[in-house]
Design a protein that fits this description.
With about 180 residues, this protein is of the alpha+beta class. The protein has one domain: M1 Pyruvate Kinase, Domain 3, CATH 2.40.33. It has an 8-stranded mixed beta sheet. A 3-stranded antiparallel beta sheet has the order 4-3-12, with no helix packed on it. The radius of gyration is 15 Å and the shape is globular. It holds the Pfam family MOSC. InterPro entries: MoCF_Sase_C, MOSC_domain, Pyrv_Knase-like_insert_dom_sf. This is MOSC domain-containing protein.
Length: about 180
Amino acid sequence: MSARVESVSRAGEHGVSKLPAELIELIAGHGVAGDAHAGVTVKHRSRVAKDPTQPNLRQVHLIHAELFDAIAPLGHRVAPGELGENILTRGINLLALPADSELRIGESAVVRVTGLRNPCAQIEAFQSGLLAQMVEKRADGALVRKAGVMGIVLNGGRVRPGDSIEISLPEGPHRPLGPV
């Protein structure tokens, strides 16, 4: 199966969930047009409180649909957009990508993966027990964050459900994704 877009979502106000849309417009250096998290500088409220001038490495949020498939049998039904993702993917292991991987989505959009989404208490408030499914503690004590990846828009364009996703890995030694 080739990598593709399952759904797209955006929200003009801050909150956990975003509204599914027929398409979203990605703007280079900015993010998703009309989305509360778009901008050159950080928009996540807790990060703004610490330093509102830091660069926005979280312009676009992507989650793999396979995560929703895996948690459904555990009683956690999550619809597209409900965990705040802008792009729901299928057929790509987002969490295994190295930092700075580039995703060409649709005809012209390019997103550079900057890091992992750090699941927060809002997920638990959205659905009891869901936060525990988004974070796993390995035997060595390390945390595995499963709530998708964040990225910045290198090249703008329209993104729709059904669009293909092509992956370009960075040159040189690959760095694993960390939370951003």
